[in-house]
Input
Amino acid sequence: MEESQTRHAEDTDTLNGQLWITEWIERGKRRVKSYAGASALLFGLPPSIVLVAYLALRWQYMTLSYLFSFAAVFLILLVAPYLIWYYEAELLPTFRDDVTGIVASSDRTQAQSLVDRYSSLIDRYWWMTAILASTPIPILMAWGGPFLREYGLFGVTDPLFWAVSVVLLWIGAIVGIGFLLVVVTVLTIRNIASLELRIDPMYPDGLGGMSIIGRYAIRTTGLFSIGSLLLPLQLQYAAVVGPPAGSLIYVMGSLYAVFIGLSFLYPTIRISQRANEIRQRILENIRDQYEELKRTAGEPRAGADLANTDPVTEQKLTRLRNEYQTYQQVRLYPLRVSIIARLIGSIILPLLLMTIEFFLQTTIMG
Output
């Protein structure tokens, strides 16, 4: 695993710049010998200290459900920056290497250039999506007086109010980068689909090689779905504050759900449609060859000349029929058991968190 991480980290040097989070984690790894450890120390520990101080100083305001929500926030702070590093330093370089296996040889360089081009969007536009995702935070803090006071934050005169606000803005920035990663995945696969795909019926995945796309898409979905850990805290906020701030929470949650679906469904459906188009073209070509061979051999279009059978022609016809059936039967939608399991996990996580939050609230109110 360590050798794989090192190799892919070196591969990213060929791309058009790295996100500063990735660069800092790469440098930190040289000291702590672990990418996850470097991420936790550099990006997880400082905001976690702020939240621990808040919990300790305002412990009398804490409830079981609120502590559950905060545990999820801690997990995001510790894990999310590492997942951003993983996407840029591991997942993208791996896909860049693997995608050459499903495009025509004449398009392989162009396919890798497409990956490079869209991966550069992360470093160039992270700040834009970070600002967009963080913008609701000040609005929610301004409207959330009842919720904040209930849990020990007392407005602009309270130093902890500002410290927690900064942490929330940082989380918003991380979430914004997560949205950008989904956009990069969608744009990359959309443009890969415009190239000449190579369907290989003998590819070990049994999907003509399309599992390369499915693996890239579902891992993006899995990384992005960690944002669902924020749902319990958001639902608590909406329940206490009500409209219009609560409505903003539900709009944000709906947008997040759309992007979770988009991160997997659009890339896989698009690549499947394109692969089916190419397969139909291949099948038509095989049919044309089959009919042309029968014609030149003097065989009737339907049936066979029973009096004069040419063994060589028959062998070629059999080969064409077998090849036709092979291409016709290969499944081109990039779903395998492992991919389906990850997809179900990405869907279940937010549902599970909402269920736990519901029962915690019910227990407390009861």
About this structure: The radius of gyration is 27 Å. The chain has a mean pLDDT of 84.
